[in-house]
């Protein structure tokens, strides 16, 4: 059943579990992560990358994710990820997404605050939720490029930012990046604790791919309640495509190829659900 991000995060026991959020670029990935979540009896978030939404089939992909969320046997939210303009947000809300990631991290603090506040006003008309970003998580969400950590979240700004914007969740930069890491990441745990000390909003972690398993558990113990994962699912998809294509090429059997891809991604998601989203 479709759910809002805010509802799912409220139900997430802080310090013990985090909501799994998986980026889905196609039907195979989306079906796979939903099946994994249903098997684990866990709520989940389907992430729709902004570039995917802007692509030729973007609106159909959004509608597909919304339909899959409606049909899922576990509470499922659909979130348009990292979007910085209100028109795109509006379009996605009209299709039925239940959350936005209003990303003003490239803007000044004042402009970021205004963008998120406007996104919250817009989303509330649809009973949808808004996640914001304070500081800057570097890297590319859609391809594995190595990145160094960006501007860290300033704990002194977090409380007023959340209060002024009305954001339902806050993505933090504490040494995490999107994609892959150019050097082993060192997360600033004290900064996370300081952010949590100033605001009671839900804290989310992006760029979890490449972090040590222990780091994810530690992040949850320190209060992170949503973790975004993308790279692992894409890696599995491509590796399976490489091995399964020659097997199913005889007769061009798309059904079997699709089945192989869904099965492989489901197994990766199931492994992550059993290992990465509990403290
Ligand atoms: Zn992200």
From TrEMBL:
GO terms for biological process: carbohydrate metabolic process. GO terms for molecular function: aldehyde-lyase activity; zinc ion binding. Zn(2+) 1 binds at residues 82, 178, 206. The active site is at 81 (proton donor). Dihydroxyacetone phosphate binds at residues 179, 207-209, 228-231. The keyword Ribosomal protein does not apply. Binds 2 Zn(2+) ions per subunit. One is catalytic and the other provides a structural contribution. Zn(2+) 2 binds at residues 103, 133. PANTHER family: D-TAGATOSE-1,6-BISPHOSPHATE ALDOLASE, D-TAGATOSE-1,6-BISPHOSPHATE ALDOLASE SUBUNIT GATY-RELATED. InterPro entries: Aldolase_TIM, Class_II_FBP_aldolase, FBA_II. This is Tagatose-bisphosphate aldolase. SUPFAM superfamilies: Aldolase. Keywords: Metal-binding, Zinc. The keyword Zinc applies. Its cofactor is Zn(2+).
């Amino acid at each position: 059943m479709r759910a809002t991000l805010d509802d799912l995060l409220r139900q997430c026991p802080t310090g013990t579990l985090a909501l799994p959020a998986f980026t889905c670029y196609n039907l195979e990935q989306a079906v796979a992560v939903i099946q994994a979540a249903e098997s684990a009896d866990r709520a989940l978030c389907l992430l729709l990358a902004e570039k995917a939404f802007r692509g030729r089939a973007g609106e159909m992909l959004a509608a597909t994710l919304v339909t899959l969320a409606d049909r899922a046997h576990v509470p499922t939210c659909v979130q348009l990820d990292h979007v910085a303009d209100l028109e795109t947000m509006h379009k996605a809300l009209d299709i039925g997404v239940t959350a936005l990631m209003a990303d003003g991290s490239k803007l000044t603090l004042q402009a970021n605050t205004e963008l998120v506040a406007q996104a919250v006003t817009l989303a509330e008309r649809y009973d949808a939720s808004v996640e914001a970003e304070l500081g800057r998580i570097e890297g590319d969400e859609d391809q594995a490029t190595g990145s160094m950590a960006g501007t860290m979240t300033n704990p002194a700004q977090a409380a007023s930012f959340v209060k002024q914007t009305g954001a339902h969740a806050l993505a933090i930069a504490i040494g995490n990046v999107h994609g892959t890491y150019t050097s082993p990441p060192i997360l600033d745990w004290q900064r996370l604790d300081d952010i949590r000390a100033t605001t009671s909003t839900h804290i989310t972690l992006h760029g979890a791919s490449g972090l040590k398993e222990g780091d994810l558990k530690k992040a949850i113990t320190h209060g992170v309640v949503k973790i975004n994962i993308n790279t692992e699912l894409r890696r599995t998809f491509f590796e399976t495509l490489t091995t399964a294509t020659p097997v199913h090429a005889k007769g061009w059997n798309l059904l079997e190829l699709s089945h192989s891809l869904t099965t492989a991604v489901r197994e990766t998601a199931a492994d992550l659900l059993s290992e990465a989203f509990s403290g």
